[in-house]
Amino acid sequence: MHSDCIVIEGSNMAECHPVAFRWVMQAKLAGATVIHVDPRFTRTSAMADIHAPLRAGTDIAFLGGLIHHVIEHEKYFKEYVVHYTNAATLVRDDFKDTEELEGVFSGLHGYDGDPLNGFVGQYDTASWQYVSGDTGTQRAGDGAMTGQVSQNPAKRGDMAGKGPEVGANPPPQGPPFDGMVRAMKKPPPPRDETLQDPRCVFQIVKRHFSRYTPEMVERVTGCPKDVFLKVAEAITRNSNPERTTAFCYAVGWTQHTYGPQLIGTCAMLQLLLGNIGRPGGGILALRGHATIQGSTDIPTLYHSIHGYMPALSTLKQHETLADYLKTETLPASYWSNTPKFFVSYLKSMYGAAATVENDFGYGWHPRIAGDHSHLPMTIAMMEGRVKGMFAMGQNPAVGAQNARLQRKALAKLEWLVVKDNFETETAAFWRTSPEVQNGELKTEEIQTEVFLFPSAQVGEMDGSFTNTQRLVQWHAKAADPPGDCRSDLWFTVHLGKRLKAHYAASTLPRDQGIKHLVWDFDADHPEPGSRIPDEPDARKVLREVNGYRSADGRHLTSAAELKDDGSTTCASWIYCGIYPEPGKNLAESRVPDAPEGPQTHLGWAFAWPSNRRTLYNRASARPDGKPWSERKKYVWWDGKRWTGHDVPDFPLTKAPDAPAKPDAIGLDAHAGTDPFILKVDGKGWLFAPTGLVDGPLPTHYEPVESPVQNPLYKQQTSPVLKMWRRDDNVIASQDPRYPHVLTTYRLTEHHLSGVMSRWLPWLAELQPELFVELSPELAGAHGIDNLDLVRIATPRGAITAKALVTRRMRPLQIDGKTVHQVGLPWHWGYQGLVTGEVVNNLSALVGDPNVSIHEGKAFVCNVEKA
Amino acid sequence: MGISRRDFFRVSTGTALGGLVGLGVNLAPATARAEALRIKDTKAHPSVCPYCAVGCGTVVHAANNQVVHVEGDVRSPVNQGNLCPKGAAIYQLHVNPNRLTKVLRRAPGATQWEEWDLERAMDRVAELTRKTRDETFVERDPKGKTLNHSLGIFSLGGATMDNEWNHVQQKLMRGLGVVAIENQARI
Amino acid sequence: MAEPMGFFTDTTVCIGCKACEVACKSWNQISSTNGGQNVLSGDSYDNTRKLDGEHWRHVKFIEQFSEDRVSESRWLMMSDVCKHCVQAGCLEVCPTGAIIRTEFDTVVIQQDACIGCRACLPACPFGVIDINPVTHTAQKCTLCYDRMQVGMTPACAQACPTASIQFGPLVQLRKKAEDRVAQLHSQGKEEAYIYGDEAILGGLNSFYLLVDNPEVYGLPVAPKLPSRNLWRSSFAAAFGAAVLGLWGLVSLRTRKRGAKAEGPSSGDGGGDGGKKGAAP
């Protein structure tokens, strides 16, 4: 709402996040320019001042073009870039860019690990480092989902040379662990604040993007040059001390074999334009599920444990507690507190059984040994390696990539537990799936024992969701669920009680983890008037997440109270402070600002960490601590302390002119002008020496399946992406049988796989049937009329859908050739009030190498009249 | 919601301008009246929309342990009472004849569901979990490094559930040694 | 009499999300086309097609794209609703007086007095009213008369994420609309205008800001009241209505019984899913 220009790219915000879009419309009515960059003309485009069409999957080329424009025309925000980013930092001499190596970076070699991990290649990242000093090489990322960075076991030894040498000079151990962390500290890397040194990040970035000219942008993306330049002009005009530009993205950016790099391109652009940490700036990720943020923070994800600490892994130096802490602690930055966070986490797992003597139960905790994410687990399931599965509020029979393979894999399970509101496609796969219908699977031969537990709905249970802006909001139980419907919490707590009873008497070492697992979530008193007396107390769960003093149970009020000696128990350091005392659950607070207030609404729910609404907000002030402008005033130094409209994301009394203390650890190692407190150098990164396995800079690669030869480089696709080549997962690229680009997406009227919408008459009638969106040009070429049945085929399979022929779809000129794009919303399945074929039967198991996200936004297909 | 009972009963007689009234024809139903407000006598519970991640505030009106109505919370700084069509349909997530209310179990090879008692089903799931976990548990890898895990069980889901469920689920799984834990965040 | 209230629908900010359609159904507990088992219309993103007895709000989609997508590329959306006309044909022809003008100057069909005689259907120049298949009465937007009476905003206007649907006292809405037209004109969007001022049936209490001719949105350029032959003489009206009134009361009871026998109770929005069992 405070933005002067809003670019929506990789998102169809008006359709998929209509209520968030209200703020875009309010900004527009107040004079902001709204830009939509998207393959299709959607309901979002209809509201935009500029719609820039582009070929699905070419956003890095588009954003790279903007970076080129900004640097070439010197439109970057110089003071911000010099002081707040790593533009001036010098990178090692042996770093070689894609400019020198025809589209790849230095360090590329073959992958020799477990094939189940899917990598087609891997990088040794040694040459990507700063000339000297600490970049936290040993740590797998700074909080993003990058747990796989060190799944390259062969390379750990190579990298140890630059990072702190593990074991070379054994530091004192703990607790306390401060001495160990201090011994790991390295001096900061050299910088050239004139930005002229050819090895400084700024010059590397400038060279890297030199070929991303407006003409090249048009060749790669199909976006006409004049439209591209209009976008470039709008964002540069609206990015300066007086004005800010915001970017909004969603899965249109993430679902690519280079998804994290794509978001990185935008982060670079926003840093160059000085739009991070400032009101009306930033990059807003529009996420798709009620607590998809919460389930990342409190990770039901294999690669991390609470608060973005990496999962314990056999692929890293994690054998002992000290090993883990040495590997994962960044001595400079807020992550220097990792020992406090991690030991408090272990206390939340094993309680009183976690002692100094047994390394707080570290030895009981399981380790990962590779990529255990959805894509490889589907393969493992197909191969019979997975015996049992819980599918809780998720419907992979429709939502998973290569859904035919997924459903056949379900038939290999010994048991499957589904918990949902309706009989989902996953629950009914053995009965009504297309594979059963067409005889590929025979119901009588499927040996899977299937359970379907009916769920309570949001109004029938207490609990919290974390929204896409990290706002944790409580929902109160209003009524009992019907029949045997139970809250999800009830299910897992009672399953846990049963399992703990099984293992209570075990003396086997392997059972000590579950035996000692703290499992105290029973309500003190049953809810009056409820039919369900054994409903667990959700607030007790939140208390454990928030943390308490181990000795007396007093709630913790902030992560600053955490200790590394076991005296504090806290599952999630980032949620610490949400429940500072009994009876005061800040997720339940409901006090909005008055209309004349600052509109940060600090009294409405709780935003982690520390109820802060905008991260890195120190950057909203100049290096000297004054606001960049009166118009964009947000957080500032008042001479004695940091203050403003938000909770400052900075040590409150650290003056803007405070120098970095060379020997200090934690934030004392940063200067008063270093806003990015989670980074080792306190700077926003225009170049990522660590954290990404596929390059320190974003580079345009083609999707795995593309009808086009990469016009920018000899290297066609990401050299390290993940792919599982199988007869039931065939990939085709530049294949004349599949000449069109296919993109999948969602509609306002439905939700994901449709479980929460296709069973609801009010929603079902709004979009009752699957359709395929085609331009009249493409439809005409195949003799397809509106509403004709169309067969859409990819190497994985074919489906039929009714044609929606519309000029909102348009053919693009790519490198001198006409490319058609075909659009399919993927909400339908074989269960529900309204049904339709499963679009994910068409998609493939291919993934990004950093986070194993699939490529659902751009692949190839053919169409014909059915 | 700040609606007093007096407001409900502030019955307005209105002015019926139908062509008949002026002629003195008395048609009793044809007078304007305050319709009984659906949320009269309900209690309003603050809640959150369960669909996307915008986090729109909602109010769930319930009476006698039944959800009566759901609408946007006008106080919420996120949505100020607005909702999208999905959020506006939350009522039908709760009150819907197609909703399951019993545990269904399908035996290996069976062609039909059977209804199962909830406690019996929980016992069976616990038994299967324990069996698979114990059969597939690995303490060390071939190089002797600690694994303490089972790859025989896969836990999928979380982004549509509560934070509190996510905590207990990942905790139970990790307590057992199950590490293949995934949710929609990777979609 | 309370202050006249109405809707101002600014179609230039409508994102076609249909929250208004669903919020209306949720509050008023209205059933869905064939229990939700509708068919794809092929007409852009509009599958509910029109205002009728079970769609009191309806969003229209109009695609305007030239072959090059440059000289013309617009996707117009508009949430349509009963106009609550100052001169309301439906009200004039209703034989039982079920259709009333409320203290808010809105037009409401009282369900317990409607006999489903269909007289009002052709009397509406906008085709707003139709028979609800569950209740067999004539239905349309009530402007959430029940909510208004307790000071609440109508469900559709409250839900609308972009304030395309604005609710309030007509005097204020007319002023807002004027300002918005002036703003659009100042931005070079000369095509913006208000549909529904006094020139149309004495004024529409639900009026629109449009950017193309009314016909493009399916609205009549010059809507007319029902032709004379639909008008009854005072005498005929009084006599006929008295008779019809009695018949209405009887038929109402029958209808209620019938509705019960069918299964889902009338107006239970959740009930329409019950039809599913009978569907193939």
UniProtKB/TrEMBL annotation, chain B:
<protein>
    <submittedName>
        <fullName>Formate dehydrogenase O alpha subunit</fullName>
    </submittedName>
</protein>
<keyword id="KW-0411">Iron-sulfur</keyword>
<keyword id="KW-0408">Iron</keyword>
<dbReference type="GO" id="GO:0009055">
    <property type="term" value="F:electron transfer activity"/>
</dbReference>
<dbReference type="InterPro" id="IPR006311">
    <property type="entry name" value="TAT_signal"/>
</dbReference>
<keyword id="KW-0004">4Fe-4S</keyword>
<dbReference type="GO" id="GO:0051539">
    <property type="term" value="F:4 iron, 4 sulfur cluster binding"/>
</dbReference>
<dbReference type="GO" id="GO:0030313">
    <property type="term" value="C:cell envelope"/>
</dbReference>
<dbReference type="GO" id="GO:0030151">
    <property type="term" value="F:molybdenum ion binding"/>
</dbReference>
<dbReference type="GO" id="GO:0009061">
    <property type="term" value="P:anaerobic respiration"/>
</dbReference>
<keyword id="KW-0560">Oxidoreductase</keyword>
<comment type="similarity">
    <text>Belongs to the prokaryotic molybdopterin-containing oxidoreductase family.</text>
</comment>
<dbReference type="Pfam" id="PF04879">
    <property type="entry name" value="Molybdop_Fe4S4"/>
</dbReference>
<dbReference type="InterPro" id="IPR006963">
    <property type="entry name" value="Mopterin_OxRdtase_4Fe-4S_dom"/>
</dbReference>
<feature type="domain" description="4Fe-4S Mo/W bis-MGD-type">
    <location>
        <begin position="42"/>
        <end position="98"/>
    </location>
</feature>
<dbReference type="GO" id="GO:0016491">
    <property type="term" value="F:oxidoreductase activity"/>
</dbReference>
<keyword id="KW-0479">Metal-binding</keyword>
UniProtKB/TrEMBL annotation, chain C:
<feature type="binding site">
    <location>
        <position position="17"/>
    </location>
    <ligand>
        <name>[4Fe-4S] cluster 1</name>
    </ligand>
</feature>
<keyword id="KW-0411">Iron-sulfur</keyword>
<dbReference type="GO" id="GO:0015944">
    <property type="term" value="P:formate oxidation"/>
</dbReference>
<dbReference type="InterPro" id="IPR051555">
    <property type="entry name" value="FDH_Electron_Transfer_Unit"/>
</dbReference>
<feature type="transmembrane region" description="Helical">
    <location>
        <begin position="230"/>
        <end position="250"/>
    </location>
</feature>
<feature type="binding site">
    <location>
        <position position="124"/>
    </location>
    <ligand>
        <name>[4Fe-4S] cluster 3</name>
    </ligand>
</feature>
<feature type="binding site">
    <location>
        <position position="144"/>
    </location>
    <ligand>
        <name>[4Fe-4S] cluster 2</name>
    </ligand>
</feature>
<feature type="binding site">
    <location>
        <position position="114"/>
    </location>
    <ligand>
        <name>[4Fe-4S] cluster 4</name>
    </ligand>
</feature>
<feature type="binding site">
    <location>
        <position position="141"/>
    </location>
    <ligand>
        <name>[4Fe-4S] cluster 2</name>
    </ligand>
</feature>
<feature type="binding site">
    <location>
        <position position="120"/>
    </location>
    <ligand>
        <name>[4Fe-4S] cluster 4</name>
    </ligand>
</feature>
<keyword id="KW-0472">Membrane</keyword>
<feature type="binding site">
    <location>
        <position position="24"/>
    </location>
    <ligand>
        <name>[4Fe-4S] cluster 2</name>
    </ligand>
</feature>
<feature type="binding site">
    <location>
        <position position="82"/>
    </location>
    <ligand>
        <name>[4Fe-4S] cluster 3</name>
    </ligand>
</feature>
<feature type="binding site">
    <location>
        <position position="14"/>
    </location>
    <ligand>
        <name>[4Fe-4S] cluster 1</name>
    </ligand>
</feature>
<keyword id="KW-0004">4Fe-4S</keyword>
<keyword id="KW-0479">Metal-binding</keyword>
<dbReference type="InterPro" id="IPR014603">
    <property type="entry name" value="Formate_DH_Fe-S_su"/>
</dbReference>
<keyword id="KW-1133">Transmembrane helix</keyword>
<dbReference type="GO" id="GO:0046872">
    <property type="term" value="F:metal ion binding"/>
</dbReference>
<feature type="binding site">
    <location>
        <position position="20"/>
    </location>
    <ligand>
        <name>[4Fe-4S] cluster 1</name>
    </ligand>
</feature>
<feature type="binding site">
    <location>
        <position position="117"/>
    </location>
    <ligand>
        <name>[4Fe-4S] cluster 4</name>
    </ligand>
</feature>
<keyword id="KW-0812">Transmembrane</keyword>
